[in-house]
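Justification of computing resources. Each target in the renewal requires a structure prediction run like the one illustrated here; the chain below, 119 residues long, is used simply to show the kind of job we budget for.
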Amino acid sequence: QVQVVESGGGLVQAGGSLRLSCTASGITFDGRPMGWFRQAPGKEREGVSCLSGASTYYADSVKGRFTISRDNAGNTLQSEDSGMYYCAAGRALIGGTPCRTGASQYTVWGQGTQVTVSS
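Resulting structure tokens:
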């Protein structure tokens, strides 16, 4: 079964950090972009970050605060923003093509993990 599963969400105080992970099964991120999206209540889904090969992309709203990475165990973000966070695997990219966070480019989505930041 092809799927991606997010983990690591929870409650964190403002100014703290949280590490989210994305684990893929039945599919690998080799040659595919890995993207993170989030959706806060009453707001549209936002592309937060993506990773493909050596390229990374961050939305202006998270630049300097979020870090996306890939290792054998998973992928992580540091977060202090409330919302449901989704990991997604994108369509295969030609080598060197930078990733983007257009939702239509992603075909396998996780169920999401909730991040709540308390003030």
